[in-house]
Design brief:
Elements: H1 7-13, H2 17-23, E1 28-33, E2 39-49, E3 52-60, H3 69-83, E4 88-94, H4 98-106, E5 110-115, E6 130-131, E7 134-135, E8 139-145
Parallel strand pairs: 3-4
Antiparallel strand pairs: 1-2, 2-3, 4-8, 5-8, 6-7
């Protein structure tokens, strides 16, 4: 399968193999490559409702993080979605993912809800995941209105 080549990138964005395998073949996959064709990052977009999509997985190769690639990548995808008449974009991240929350807010996303106890063993997430010394428990949802400039 073509997307299997991107599983290492997907695994950077998803801690549950069970969840990953349930969605990585869905939606539209945007892959960003360097000049030699090596994948630097990817964004998976899934459709939720009329005019609404979710950034289901966003990842940049670990050796390339911190160089602005993610921001450039997501901005390009958002511009493409706007051209495709998408008006509402959502993205979820872990409550302990302070860097990701800041990343999306810098792109114009706003906090909209919290789904408590999302990252559970029932969904295939390992126990005791922590980031920044904070236990991973809740999904923090953010959204962006593409009808407004960003």
């Amino acid at each position: 399968m073509e997307r299997d080549a991107y599983l290492p990138l997907f695994r950077l964005a998803e801690d549950s193999e069970e969840q990953l395998l349930s969605y990585y073949q869905t939606g539209e996959l945007y892959v960003y490559r360097n000049e030699t064709g090596h994948p630097l990052g990817m964004v998976l977009v899934t459709h939720k409702a009329a005019g609404q999509v979710e950034l289901k997985a966003v990842a940049v190769d670990e050796t390339r993080q911190g160089r602005g690639i993610g921001q450039k990548m997501v901005k390009a995808v958002l511009a493409e979605l706007r051209r495709a008449a998408v008006c509402h974009v959502i993205v979820g991240t872990g409550n302990c993912a302070i860097g990701q929350v800041a990343f999306y807010q810098k792109l114009g996303f706003r906090l909209c809800s919290v789904e408590r106890d999302f990252f559970s063993a029932e969904r295939g997430y390992p126990k005791d995941i922590t980031e920044n010394g904070i236990p991973l428990r809740d999904m923090v949802w953010m959204d962006l209105n593409l009808l407004q400039p960003f």
